[in-house]
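Worked Example 4.2. Consider the chain below.
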Amino acid sequence: MASEMRRGKGKRSVFNVTDRSHFYPRYRLHGHIPPNILTLWGMAVLRRVVFMSRSIGAAGLSTVSLAHILGAAERNNRQAEVTAGLVLHGDRIVEAMEGPAHAVAKAMERIHADPRHTDVEVILDRQVERRALQEPMSVCDDAEAFLRAVGIPSLALMTGEIAEDVLERRLAA
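Applying the procedure from the previous section yields the following structure tokens:
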């Protein structure tokens, strides 16, 4: 979608409002996703989704399978300017994603279509003005310590409120 803008005495310049490449030219060079994103007319343009799911079978949790999944997720997320964090405990997965709304929606479509996931349940979906997650894909390396820190015995008991609290504490740190 192109828009026209008048400059001075009748001069017009055309720009593509869906092309965001001009927003972060400095960051793109380094492959880093900026922690904050510009707001457009006072509205947040980032979406945060936290979901829970179960992995299917032993293949879903094998080291090779997990490395393949995380590698593909990191590549897709970096390209789409999505940041994500994952906690894996037993057969339960909790993942938080932040990024442009259309990119997060597309990632969620891929997850729903992935046969390695079942019982996908979105526990938090809202717009945010700042990212709490900075990496295209990060994984919690000690799920037991994470569960103790948030005060729940199992990821099955994760709620949107708990997830939001964890992300806000991470943002404040």
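DSSP finds five helices and seven strands in the chain. Residues 1-38 have pLDDT under 50 and may be disordered. Compare this with Example 4.1 before moving on.
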